[in-house]
Amino acid sequence: MKNTENHEIDYVAKFDSIFTTKPLRLFKSIIPFVDPALRKHLIVLIKIMELQYVLSGLSDQLLSSHLNTDCQCNPSLITILNSLCHYCDETEKQTIEQMIQLFQAYEMYQTYQSVTKPGKEADDFTDILQTMLSPEQRDLFHSFMEHT
């Protein structure tokens, strides 16, 4: 999903910002400077405080007002897969990209099926593609086909 400035929206950061208070941010900012033996305890304390904050103020209205303002109510599977890519390593990204290509191919197949007349096989795939072109694009296509 993109915002009006064409930047990717970081939904994880947006979600975290709802459930993080200023004191929690301050605690998180000092983690690198705390004695390593105490770091684990501080991290657990921060997580407990976050959970308490969430449980005390969690409501559907809060979630919908902060998370769904720029979201589609029913996003496509491709939109969801694209948002997951930001948090994947290269191998996982390649797998997701292959899935996206598969879904796009399926969508193209569905378009092909909807263009062909029921009960009649398409005579030529180029005829079907031409039905999707504007008159100018069709003329250009015919010119190209005559010269090849």
Major sheet details:
none
Outline: elongated
Count of discrete structural domains: 3
Helix share bin: 55-70%
Class computed from helices, strands and strand pairing: mainly alpha
Oligomer: single chain
Radius of gyration: 25 Å
Number of strands: 0
State the separation between the terminal residues, measured CA to CA: 41 Å
Flag low-confidence runs.
1-7
Mean pLDDT: 78
Compute the number of helices.
Answer: 8
Order of helices and strands: HHHHHHHH
SS strand fraction: under 5%
Describe the structure.
The model is unreliable at 1-7 (pLDDT under 50). Helix 5 packs antiparallel against helix 6. The protein is built from 8 helices and no strands. The protein has 3 domains: 1-71, no CATH class; 74-115; 118-148, no CATH class. The chain is an all-alpha fold and 148 residues long. It starts with 10 loop residues before the first helix and ends with a helix. The longest helix is centred in the C-terminal third of the chain and has 26 residues, at 90-115. The protein has helices at 11-18, 22-30, 36-57, 60-67, 77-85, 90-115, 125-131, 135-146.
Label this structure with key terms.
disordered N terminus, mainly alpha, 148 residues, 3 domains, 68% helix, single chain
In short:
With 148 residues, the chain is mainly alpha-helical.
